[in-house]
Amino acid sequence: MTEEIALKLKIASILGLAALVLTLAQPATAQPQISQGQQFYQKVCAKCHEAGIGPVLLGRGLPETTFTYFVRHGNGPMPAFRMTDIDDATLRELASYLSKSPAKP
Ligand code: HEC
């Protein structure tokens, strides 16, 4: 009897784990792919630049170097971001994303 309960518990926990794995695997396939750079923009830069604290960055066709420069050096109230905040590869993606972004309607 207790063995049967133990077995049922084992099966239940395996099924639970399988369900968890499936749930965790879901967003990766369901969500549209956005680059690390774009994610960084949305998580960090947008807090100021889409909240009226900093000027709008999207859709202005600013050169990529403008973004890499300001991000590494800061600008008045805007903090500088170090390699430990955003690495060069992600910063390049971010700059390319912002530089090419279409104007917001
Ligand atoms: C804490 C708020 C804040 C955050 C976070 C922030 N900025 Fe800024 N940013 C500003 C402000 C304020 C200015 C305008 C400063 C000024 O002109 O004195 C600015 C200016 C800029 C400029 C110059 C734009 C222009 O028209 O002169 C660029 C480019 C820029 N930010 C890019 C970024 C990027 C990319 C990120 C994300 C990595 C970011 N900023 C994160 C506040 C912020």
Give the helix/strand layout.
Blueprint: H1 2-30, H2 36-49, H3 64-73, H4 88-100
The structure holds heme C.
- Major pleated sheet: none
Number of strands: 0
Shape: elongated
Strand coverage percent: under 5%
Radius of gyration: 22 Å
Mean pLDDT over the full residue set: 87
User: What is the number of independent domains?
Assistant: 2
Helix amount: 55-70%
The CATH topology annotation of the largest domain reads as Cytochrome Bc1 Complex, Chain D, domain 2
Structural description of this entry:
The protein has 2 domains: 31 residues; 65 residues, Orthogonal Bundle (Cytochrome Bc1 Complex, Chain D, domain 2), CATH 1.10.760.10. By secondary structure, it is mostly helical. The chain binds heme C. Heme C (HEC) binds next to helix 2 and helix 3.
Short description:
The protein is mainly alpha-helical and about 100 residues long. The chain has helices at about 1-30, 35-50, 65-75, 90-100. Helix 2 crosses helix 4 (about 90-100).
